[in-house]
Amino acid sequence: xxLSLALSTFLIAHHRQQPLPPPSSVRIVxxxxxxxxxxxxxxxxxxxxIGKAGKGKWLAISAFTPDPAGGELAPLYVSDDGGxxxxxxxxxxxxxxxxxxxxxIGFGTGSDLYITDLRGRQPFGHVxxxxxxxxxxxxxxxxxxxxxxxxxxxxxxxxxxxASTTTDGVATNRLFIGxxxxxxxxxxxxxxxxxxxPIFRLETRNTSSQDGPEVRVATIDSGWTYAAFYRxxxxxxxxxxxxxxxxxxxxxxxxxxxGNDAHPFSQLVGKDGxxxxxxxxxxxxxxxxxIGSQRIGGSLALAIDPRKPADPEMPNVVYLAYGSDNGKDxxxxxxxxxxxxxxxxxxxxxxxxxxxxxxxxxxxxVTTSGIVGFLYQSFDSNSRTWSTYLYRQSDSASDSEPLLxxxxxxxxxxxxxxxxxxxxxxxxxxxxxxxxxxxxxxxxVFCAGNQAKLANFPLVKDLNQVFSRxxxxxxxxxTDIHRNPIKDAKTNRSVSGLSxxxxxxxxxx
Length: 509
Fold this sequence. Notes:
Helix content is 4%, strand content 42%. By secondary structure, the chain is mostly beta strands. The longest helix has 14 residues, at 2-15.
């Protein structure tokens, strides 16, 4: 028996060294439509939603794109043909003085789309949480406020996850909005807002006066729901560069009934008897530091393997990603991917993934066949090049080299990179990218430079399948709707036609 077990372990380890076959097909699409060929905005920080009822054809993407008409409605990119073509509809209410930011989206049981965002309102400088809905994601009418008159201020980075549940035979949508709530007592800022129920504080321990901005939720049809957040334990005094080193840990909590347990999210208990397991202790990061032109965010991500375990008593495998520099200025900020096979009680790091140093914007998803995808964006300080990678791993194989979806040099976006230009803002690429699945395919979105060169999109053979917007085939620079060089609307002078765009992709395994 021991010999058989040892041989089985050897074979599994051996098989995991085998490379995954290349994707059967790859699609990468700049979602900026042809009608906006002349825009040069910093269209960063994307999120993605996939409508299951649309059988993988219904898609929505949000980004920091201003209303092309100069109005107060923030745009939403939508596709009903699986991402081949995209339309832009201005439907997210009110930019106001501050603008609309931190937009995340999720489909309900049908074509309905839920949206959370931070919206600037009067008086100037006040930002409030919106929880809104489109009855149909293709609607050109403004989204409906689900909580009219309920203004929640002092929150940051809301991220919505929509779970479809059945109550008394009726399909319903359960919203989990992970956010950082600065109004929380005792610095217990990591919070879940259920939209239609009282909020729930995830933090139970002492903090440095707040937790990190990101709170991430993942759930599956069985009702098992995980929440992860950065517990900030202490802050050092500001450094000479004005930034602050923060020490902490990643805490994971679990609920077995979509957050409806008698004591919600209390299934995992730490050594101190309090709810929540430390999945990544002794985490450290310099808050306020940059990698290239991109600020360091949290790069926190969660995903659950949708396959039912052979043993019904065993939990689904769950994955976690986070970023840390190990507490040393000499150590690069690095992304880590971990796995738990016991319901979140213990975590093991998946090592040997290339290009995770100086990387940000982690996102994870798992296909129906159990292939885990790890999306991230890595910076090379020598060439000042950003590369977007998708690393794949199955039960028996993995990518020896992750798929390179995009690469671009910061030097190709001079009008965005210049801090003196009023178009520049942090984050350069966004505080997150997004990865999801439909069946055995990966679908995702990231933001990157839009120079139309085949070298920038190594998996692509025809740039006309990537770009609907016009571009110069020689220089790769974007052009206006008439294929002329782009000019500044105020000065009428030619400007760089290169900027940051959202890119949708689909990888069929």
